[in-house]
């Protein structure tokens, strides 16, 4: 059976009405542009014949009820269906407080966007004939109220049942936290593991068994496509962080069952009051990169002393911005050979170290 559909992804919107913006000097998120950037992206998407839009979490700055309410109302005006899942910023507390909604309140805001059953924070729905979307909740809380990224047992049991019942459907999975590593040793490094699903291997095993081929994530604020066997994880950068991207995707299956996914990425280059947004936000990220890079250099496997790390940190001012934009290659010829090899691994290369540029524009054979 032939099948073709077009959809878009906008991730980590961090919507913040002006009166709600937190003025924290070290924040990476340019939430000031969240609403105009979203409006510009939606204007572009409105020119296309979209079948649906995916928003893989961090819809709001930090779970503020007025920001959730604004987004809910804005999505209601769109001419195509929208599906969301919660990010860690959307449900930052278990019980509601004066600044944020409670964990269980999230699906009540988004009943029209996947959550037909507001009693649970995950869902399965047919988005088109022959196409099923599974939206998962990767946010949990421990006994002390600390937020964690993993799938609890009831959700995993539910997912196993749903996957077993699927017959002859294209399955798309959406979850906020990363399931496949997008950075070298991401699941082990303290700077990267907090963006990973803590029990990612369990979810991967279920998806591999069910022959799921596509999963869509956010959280890391980078443009990257990673693979595990025949499963592709497409993570999309944040609309409020450099390079302010969003994606347009075209799925096609021919009469013989051959499938491919064509991916285009676009950027918000400027908005009112921020006409040079790309350049400004790249510098914004560079200005705040030093503490992050010092931690990277002094931790295993680099394990430099703080004094030695200072020698290299200025050369890495734009390192994270280049990671975020995807399809970057890294060469630092003045670094020691071992350090050169380490940073080369962060580039858009395959297992043999050969360039592989698929993070922004690609056609994936599924």
TrEMBL record:
Keyword Lipid biosynthesis on this protein?
A: no
Q: Which InterPro entries match?
A: Calcineurin-like_PHP (IPR004843), CNP_phosphodiesterase-III (IPR050884), Metallo-depent_PP-like (IPR029052), Pesterase_cyn (IPR011239)
Print the keywords alphabetically: Hydrolase, Iron, Metal-binding
Annotated Calcineurin-like phosphoesterase domain ranges read 5-222
GO MF terms here are: hydrolase activity; metal ion binding
At the top level, the lineage of the source is Bacteria
* SUPFAM superfamilies in UniProt: Metallo-dependent phosphatases
Presence of keyword Isomerase:
no
By sequence similarity, the record places it as follows: Belongs to the cyclic nucleotide phosphodiesterase class-III family.
Alphabetical list of PANTHER family matching this protein: CYCLIC NUCLEOTIDE PHOSPHODIESTERASE CBUA0032-RELATED (PTHR42988:SF2), PHOSPHOHYDROLASE (PTHR42988)
**What is this protein identified as?**
Metallophosphoesterase
Task: Please tell me the species this chain comes from.
Answer: Desertifilum tharense IPPAS B-1220
């Amino acid at each position: 059976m032939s099948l073709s559909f077009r959809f878009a992804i906008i991730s980590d919107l961090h919507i913040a009405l002006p009166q709600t913006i937190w003025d924290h000097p070290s924040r990476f998120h340019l939430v000031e542009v969240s609403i105009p950037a979203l409006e510009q992206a939606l204007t572009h998407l409105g020119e296309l014949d979209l079948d649906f839009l995916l928003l893989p979490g961090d819809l709001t700055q930090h779970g503020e009820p007025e920001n959730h309410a604004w987004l809910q109302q804005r999505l209601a005006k769109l001419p195509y269906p929208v599906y969301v899942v919660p990010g860690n910023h959307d449900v930052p507390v278990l019980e509601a407080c004066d600044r944020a909604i409670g964990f269980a309140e999230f699906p009540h805001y988004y009943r029209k966007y996947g959550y037909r059953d507001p009693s649970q924070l995950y869902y399965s729905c047919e988005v088109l004939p022959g196409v099923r979307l599974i939206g998962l909740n990767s946010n949990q809380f421990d006994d002390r109220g600390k937020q964690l990224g993993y799938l609890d047992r009831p959700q995993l049991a539910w997912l196993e049942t749903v996957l077993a019942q699927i017959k002859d459907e294209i399955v798309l999975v959406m979850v906020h936290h990363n399931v496949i590593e997008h950075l070298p040793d991401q699941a082990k490094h303290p700077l990267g593991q907090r963006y990973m699903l803590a029990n990612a291997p369990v979810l991967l095993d279920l998806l591999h068994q069910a022959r799921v081929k596509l999963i869509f994530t956010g959280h890391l604020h980078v443009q990257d496509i990673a693979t595990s066997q025949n499963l592709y994880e497409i993570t999309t950068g944040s609309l409020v962080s450099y390079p302010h991207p969003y994606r347009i995707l075209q799925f096609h299956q021919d009469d013989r069952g051959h499938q491919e996914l064509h991916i285009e990425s676009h950027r918000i280059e400027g908005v009112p009051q921020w006409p040079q947004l790309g350049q400004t936000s790249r510098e914004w990220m560079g200005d705040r990169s030093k503490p992050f890079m010092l931690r990277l250099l002094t931790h295993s496997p680099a394990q430099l002393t703080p004094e030695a790390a200072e020698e290299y940190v200025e050369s890495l001012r734009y390192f994270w911005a280049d990671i975020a934009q995807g399809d970057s290659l890294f060469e630092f010829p003045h670094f020691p050979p071992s350090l050169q090899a380490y940073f080369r691994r962060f580039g858009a290369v395959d297992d043999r170290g050969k360039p592989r540029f698929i993070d922004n524009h690609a056609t994936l054979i599924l």
